[in-house]
Design goal:
With 246 residues, this protein is α+β, with helices and mostly antiparallel strands. It contains five helices and 13 strands. Strand 3 and strand 4 form a beta hairpin. The relative contact order is 0.22.
Length: 246
């Protein structure tokens, strides 16, 4: 049996320095709660959004294993503003499987984005992006995902190891239910080094400097036969100078 690699969490006090020096940083769930000023009840309320995600109709591999929503915002300092609903677009350079196409996903529910914790979460991630690149207006895309084992196997990153074409990528582990697999892998974009680990704590967080690293997650399978499993994540990207696709 292969042993599981544990996430190399960093203290909150070292978050910005680790992200700058290594190109990625990991926060434990306890650190995330402290960072967001959030209670367990706050996070449980936000987590309800993952019970109502429509199927992804754009999967080119023919899979039925992904559900998601997509909404966009601007963040400047502590000011968080929603923007009119728009398509998600990536160039083929960053997503060889689904790049070059406009993907119109259903937006996040109003009751989710109106929660005070949601704006606080986006503002705190903006602080991390500003520490990495300097203060500016950030163009933010938020993606609540559920990858499940409907097809027997679910692929969190069907495009493989990739960059997203942004400045900062945040991946929150929201929940795992009766699955095995789903290992996170982070590699230098221009070097040989990399790390692998499995995020299990609900609301633990992986932050990535998208210019310096590429990332992927391995497929998931049900931990028990004839049982549906799933992996819920929140992926939020921060980009200067506008959204991809104009």
């Amino acid at each position: 049996m292969t042993s599981e690699f544990q996430p190399p969490y960093v203290p909150l006090s070292e978050l910005d320095q680790r992200l700058q020096s290594r190109g990625f940083a990991l926060l434990s769930a306890d650190s995330v709660r402290q960072w967001l000023g959030a209670s367990g009840a706050d996070l449980q309320q936000l987590q309800q959004a993952w019970t109502d995600l429509p199927p992804d109709e754009y999967l080119k591999d023919g899979g039925r294993y992904r559900r998601r929503r997509h909404s966009c915002f601007t963040v400047e300092g502590q000011q968080v503003q929603p923007v009119p609903h728009r398509a998600h677009w990536q160039p083929l350079e960053y997503n060889a499987l689904h790049g070059g196409m406009q993907r119109w996903f259903q937006p996040m529910n109003t009751e989710t984005v109106q929660q005070p914790l949601w704006s606080r979460l986006l503002a705190r991630l903006g602080d991390a992006a500003a520490a990495l690149r300097g203060p500016r207006t950030w163009f933010v895309e938020a993606h609540p995902f559920r990858i499940d084992t409907t097809d027997g196997i679910g692929r969190p990153t069907p495009e493989g190891a990739h960059r997203d074409g942004v400045d900062l990528v945040a991946v929150f582990m929201v929940n795992r239910h009766q699955i095995k697999g789903g290992e996170s892998r982070v590699f230098e974009a221009n070097g040989p080094s990399g790390e692998r680990f499995t995020l299990r704590e609900p609301w633990s967080l992986l932050l990535l400097d998208d210019a310096r690293v590429i990332h992927e997650s391995t497929p998931i399978q049900p931990s028990q036969a004839d049982t549906l499993g799933w992996r819920d994540t929140l992926v939020v990207t921060y980009r200067a100078d506008g959204f991809q696709g104009g």
